[in-house]
Design goal:
The protein is globular. The strands form five sheets. Strands 1-2-3-4 form a four-stranded antiparallel β-sheet, with no helix packed on it. It has a four-stranded antiparallel β-sheet with strand order 5-6-7-8, with no helix packed on it. It is mostly beta strands. The chain has no helices and 19 strands.
């Protein structure tokens, strides 16, 4: 359905739809049962590098390496908020849909929280020891896990900005993806060192 590289893909909460983001400057929503495109694509000025879907499935965040985050209404396809000049490697919604967390390209050793309802920064950036490539909210929304370029990960308490776990280095190359298990007990990291590791999210 795309005319260029597909950068990311994700399920909607209903499990009946997926969204794909591409370098062809579009995000396409697909019906899984029929395999057909659902409505018109969401369009960006640049190739879309990342995507996050809100817990209620009504909003999608898309962004580009060149800078700029856009929050679309997934139903009406209208732009809800546009955050200009902010490039990000990854983004994720909090479980309650109130926050969006990003791994920014410009300030690579910081994690930024955004108010999903206003598109404005929600608090002071969370600091890390090395460049951040990926982020994920814990299922209870109290913590953010971050994967770093040096092969480590850490878990940060968003209420205090302090480290809850780590940094822990288990990979020999950069951590490109991080995700929690649904019950929050486990944290999974994927790396360019060709390995996936499973961690106890509370003890590391």
């Amino acid at each position: 359905g795309h005319t260029d590289v597909v950068r990311s893909v994700a399920y909607f909460p209903d499990g009946k739809h997926i969204a794909s983001a591409s370098s062809d400057k579009t995000i396409i929503i697909w019906d899984l049962e029929s395999g057909r495109q659902n409505g018109e694509p969401l369009r960006h000025d640049f190739g879309v590098m990342l995507k996050a879907i809100s817990p209620d499935g009504r909003r999608i965040v898309g962004g580009t390496k060149e800078g700029g985050l856009i929050i679309w209404n997934a139903v009406t396809r209208e732009v809800v908020h546009e955050i200009k000049g902010v490039g990000a490697y990854r983004a994720a919604y909090s479980p309650d849909g109130h926050w969006i967390v990003t791994a920014p390209i410009a300030n690579e050793r910081e994690i930024q929280l955004w108010d999903a309802n206003t598109g404005r920064p929600g608090r002071e950036p969370l600091k890390c020891e090395d460049n951040v490539l990926c982020v994920a909210f814990s299922p209870d929304g109290s913590q953010v896990a971050a994967g770093l370029v040096d092969g480590s990960f850490r878990v940060i308490d968003i209420s205090t900005g302090e480290s809850a776990v780590g940094p822990i280095k288990g990979h020999t190359e950069y951590v490109s993806s991080v995700v929690y298990s649904p019950d929050g007990r486990l944290l999974v990291t994927g790396s360019s060192d060709q390995s996936i590791r499973v961690w106890d999210s509370k003890t590391g």
